[in-house]
Amino acid sequence: MLDLQYMILLSKTGKVRCIRWYGDYTSKEKQLLLKDIISLVLTRNSRESNIIEYDMTGYATKNTSKNGHRIMYKRYASLYFVAGIEDSNSSNELLILEAIHRFVESLDKYFGNVCELDIIYNFEKCYYIMLETFSCDGNLLESNKRKVLQDIQIMDQIESGEGLSGLLG
Amino acid sequence: MMSNSTSRSTPFGNLFQKSLHDLIVSIRACQKDPLALSETLDNVLKECKQEVISSNMHKKSTAILKLTYLEMYGYDMTWCSFHVLEAMSSSDFQQKRIGYLAAQQAFRNDPDMLILATNCLKKDLNSYKKLDIGIAISGVSSIVTTNLAKDISEDLFRISRHGDPYIRKKATAALGKLFLQYPEALRDNLDGFFQLLQDPDDSVVLVALGVIYEICRINPSPFMKYMPFFYDLFAELENKIWMIITLLKIFTILAKHEPKLKQKLLPVIESLMDHSADSLKYECYNCIVSGGLIYKEDYELSNVILTELQNFCISRDPNLRYVSCLLFHKIALINTEFISSDDKYETLILNFLEDPDIVIRSKAIDLLEPILNSNNIESIVKGLIQSFQEDETKKATTPEYKLTVMNTLLHLFTQKNYINISDFNWYVDTIVLFLNELASLKKCIDLDVLPLIREIGVQLSNVCLKIPDLREYTLFKFLELIINEETYESYSLVLKYAYWCIGEYADDISDCGQMIHAILGQPHHLKKLAPESIEALFPCLLKLFTTTALEMEEIQNSDLYSYLINLCQIILDFFDTINDCKDIETQQRLCENKELYKMVHEVLTVNKESNEQLDKLPELVTTVLPNLYNSWEIKPIQKNQQLKAQAKMNFDYLNEQEFLSNDDYNSLEALIENLDSSNKKEENKLRKINKVYGDDFSSYEYNAALESSDEEVVYRQNDKKTLLGTNENSKKDTQQKLREERKDNPFYLYDDDDQSNEDIQQEEQREDEEDEAIKKSDKIDASKILKFKSKNPPAGKAVEILSEEKFGDDTGSTDEDYDSGNYKDDYKSKLEFKGGKINVVGNNKLQSFNFDNGPLDQEYTSEQNDNNDGSVIEEEVVIIKKKKKGKKASKRGKKIEESEQLIN
C-alpha cells in the first residue's frame, strides 16, 4: 500500500549512501532519474513540503508508463531519505512519510544515535534493515520497529556466532 | 551493539584482504582528487576480480560485498553472477546473507542467473533453519518470474503456514509478488490465502492486507464476495492505524467497483474522521472522494469534508496543505459547484496560490476554474502575474510554473464563450502582456513557448472575429506589436494572426496606406519571419492596398494615381527583399503576388501617362482585386457544424434545372471557335514574350486570362511597349535585363566577378534602406493610422459577443457542454487511476487473468456460477463506461472482447 518505486539515502552533498529500486527501471532511466532527484531534492528548503511532483515522460521508454511520479523526501540531519511513489489516485503521502520515519527510527535504534558515517561504513546493515522494513515490491513489511530490531539481532548473533565457531573449529 | 562484523569475523586467514571498511576508507581518502579516486577504484576492482574467484569462501563473499558497494556507484557486477550464486548456496549464514543481498541488488531479471538460482532457492526454502528460509524468501520475491513462480508456489503456501510469524510474514509478502506473475496460484488457493487474514500475528495480517490491496488495484472482482469479511475485520481493528488505512484503501477500490457499498461504508468512515492521526483522516477523505461515495448532488457530505479539510489548508505543515490541495481538486472534479458554492473556499484557494511552496502553488493553479468568475478574475490574474516577479524576494518561481499559469489562464479566459471576462479591453491587454512574459521565458531556457504564442494569436483573432466592438482595439494592439522590434525577435509567430486580422478588417482601418508603411517598415526583420507569417502577409497587403485604393477613389483624391503607384512600388520593393526565401509555398505566393502588383503598377502608370480620367481607377483595381477575396463575410461557427452542413447539403436543384440552357450552350460553342482562331495569334505573341522574359511568360499568360475586355487596350499597349523595347535594345541589354531579373533567384548562377560588384551595390542600397526604414518606423504613430470610429473603446458587459452559428436546431452539444466537458476530461485523464496502465507494463499477468475459468472442483464452480450473474452484469456496466471514454475503449478493446464472449 506504499507502492514505493525506490528508496534512496542521499547525503546533503548529493552522494548516494544507499539505494534500492523497487520498480522496474532500465539502468539509463535510473541514471537520469537519480541525477534529477539529487538536484531537485537538494534545492528544497525547510519551509516547503516534502513532496515534489516529477514528470518522467521524457525518459520513460515507450512501453513503460512511469510518467506520473512523485518524489517524497525527508531530511534527517545530513541525510535525505528519498522515496519515489506512483502518482496514483490512492497514494497516501502522509503515510509514506510515516513509513520513512519508522525506517529511520529503526536505524537509529540499531546504531544508537545513527549518523551518516554509521551508514557509510555499514551500508550492508542498512540494507538488511531496509529488507526487514519494506517488502521487495515496495510495501511495508513490518510496522513495528521492535520486531525489526529483534529479527536483525538474531541474524547478527548467528553471523558472529558462526564466525566464532569457525574460529574455534 | 554496533560492530564491524566483517572485519571482526576474519581474525586469521584473510589478513591481506581489504575489508569493506578499508575499501570505504580508501575511497573517502581520495574523494577530493578525481584522478586518485579513479585509480583507487580501478585497483579495487582488479583486486575484487582476483578475490572473487578464490576458493576461500570468506574471501569470495567479502569481495562480493565490496562489489555490491561499488555497484551502488554504478559499477557493473553482472560478470560475477556465478560467484554470487556460490555465496548464496554457502552453508555459512553470513556468506549466504551477502550472496542474497548482492543478488537482490544487482540481478533482478537476469535469465541465466535465475535458472541456476532455482535449485538453490528451493533448497533454502526447505531448510530447517528459520533464518535461511527467511532470507531465501526475500530473495525469491525479488527475482520471481513466471516459471520460478510455478515451481515454488506450493512451497510458499506451505511455508505460509510455518510456525514462526516471521516466516509467515515473509512468505505472505512473497506470495503477493508471486500472484502477479502466476495468478493461477491465487485462484486455486483463494480461501487458503484468506486464512492469513485471521492470523494471530498482526504483522502477518498487515502484509496480507497489503497484498490484497495490490491485487485489488489490478482486478477487484475476485474479492467482492469477501466484503462482509473485510467489514467484520474493520470493526475489530481498534487502533491499528496501518491496518485501518490499508483496509480503507481496499474499500476505496471495492466501492468504486460496486456503488451499492456506499450505504454500508459511509457511516463507518465518517465515524473515523475525527481520529487524531492526520494520515488516517486523509485516508478517510480520500476514500469518500476517490471511492465514489460522494455523488454530484451530495452538497451536505461535500461540505462536511471541505470543512474538515480547512484545518489541513491552514496548517503550518506544508505536506498537509499539499494533500488538502489534492483533495480540493478531486472534489472539484466531481462537481465544481461544491467549491464555488461557498466563498470561504475561494479565500482558501487564493491562499494556496500564495503559498511559499511552488509545488502547492502549481497544484492550486488547477483549482482556479471553480472559483474564477467575472468579478475576481482581474485581481487573481494580477496577483499571479505579480508572483512572476518575486524571484529574488522570497518565493521561488520556475519557468515551468509560469508556463503552466499562462496556459491555464488562457484556457480559462475563453471558457464557456468568455463567461469569466467582463472587461474585454483588460482581456486583450492581459494576453498581450503574456507575450512579454513568454519572451523572457524564451530567453532563460529552451522551453517550448511556441504553442502558447500561437494560442495567444488565435485568441486575439477570435476577439476580432467574435466581438465586433473590440475589433478596433485589438487591431490597435496588433499595430503596436507590428511596430515593436521586440515582437520580431521574441514572438514573431503572433504576427501571422496580426496580418490576417489587419487584412480581414481593413475596412475598420482609417489609413490603410500608412498601415502598409508600418507593416513593411522593418524589412530586415521581415526577412527573418517564419514562412507561415510571410504567407499571411500576402493577402493582408492585397486587402490593404485594395481598400486604400477604393477609399481614395471615393474621396476623389487628386494625386490618386501617383500615391497608388508609389504604394505599389513599396510593396514590390519589399517583395524583392524576400526573394531568397527558402520556403517553397512562400516562393509560390511571392511569384503570384509579384506579377499581380507588376500588372497593377503598369496599368496605373499607363493610365497616368495617358492622362485620361485621373479621378477614376481602372477596373482591374476596383473589381478584379477585391473579387480575389471579397465573397463572404467570415463568421464564427460552432465546432463540427461544417461537417453537418455538408451532410445535409441538397443537390436536387441540379436535376431540376439544367446547368447550361441551350442558348448558353450555343453561345459557348461560338466563343470557343473564336478563341481557337485568336489562340494562334496569341500563341505567336506569347512566344515573342517568352524570348524576352524567359520563364516569366507563364505568369503573363495567367494574367492575360484574368484581364477583362476593357483592359485589353491597355494591355496591348503594354505589349507593344515591351516588344518595342526589346527591338530597340541590343542583345547585350536583354541579357543584362535578364540577369537583373534573376539576380535574387538562387537557381541562376553567374560569374562571381560580375556578381561581387552587384552585391556590394546591393548591400549599400540595402543598408540605406534599413536606415531609412528605422527612421520611418520611429515616425510612425499608431494612433494616426488607426482612428477609432467609436470614440471610446467599450467596456463592461455591454459588449456583444457573436454567438457561434450552428446548423439547424441541433441541441446535441451546446457550447457550454463542450467547454466544461473538455476541461474535465483533460484533468480526469491526468488524475485517472493509473493502476491498470502500470501493470500492463510490468510483466504481471493478473490484469487479464480470468478468475472464473479454471480447472476448479465441480462443487466450487457451481457455487461460482450463482454469483456469476451478478458479476457479469457488473462487467457490462464497466464496459459501457469504458466505451464512453473513446480512447480507453480502443486500448482495452481486447478486454472488452473477452468479456463480451463471457456474456455470450
From TrEMBL, chain A:
The keyword Glycosyltransferase does not apply. SUPFAM superfamilies: SNARE-like (SSF64356). One of its GO terms (cellular component) is cytosol. Keywords: Membrane, Protein transport, Transport. It is found in: Endomembrane system. InterPro entries: AP_complex_ssu, AP_mu_sigma_su, Clathrin_sm-chain_CS, Longin-like_dom_sf. Its main location: membrane. Signal peptide: none annotated. One of its GO terms (biological process) is Golgi to vacuole transport. The keyword Membrane applies. Residues 4-158 form the AP complex mu/sigma subunit domain. PANTHER family: ADAPTOR COMPLEXES SMALL SUBUNIT FAMILY. Belongs to the adaptor complexes small subunit family. This is AP complex subunit sigma. It comes from Hanseniaspora guilliermondii.
From TrEMBL, chain B:
GO terms for biological process: Golgi to vacuole transport; protein targeting to vacuole. It is found in: Endomembrane system; Golgi apparatus. It comes from the Eukaryota. GO terms for cellular component: AP-3 adaptor complex; endosome membrane; Golgi apparatus. Residues 729-745, 773-784 have a biased composition (Basic and acidic residues). Residues 880-894 have a biased composition (Basic residues). Residues 665-692 form a coiled coil. Pfam families: Adaptin_N (PF01602). Residues 45-598 form the Clathrin/coatomer adaptor adaptin-like N-terminal domain. Keywords: Coiled coil, Golgi apparatus, Membrane, Protein transport, Repeat, Transport. Residues 750-772 have a biased composition (Acidic residues). Residues 720-824, 852-904 are annotated as: Disordered. Residues 859-869 have a biased composition (Polar residues). Belongs to the adaptor complexes large subunit family. Adaptor protein complex 3 (AP-3) is a heterotetramer. Part of the AP-3 complex, an adaptor-related complex which is not clathrin-associated. The complex is associated with the Golgi region as well as more peripheral structures. It facilitates the budding of vesicles from the Golgi membrane. This is AP-3 complex subunit delta. It comes from Hanseniaspora guilliermondii.
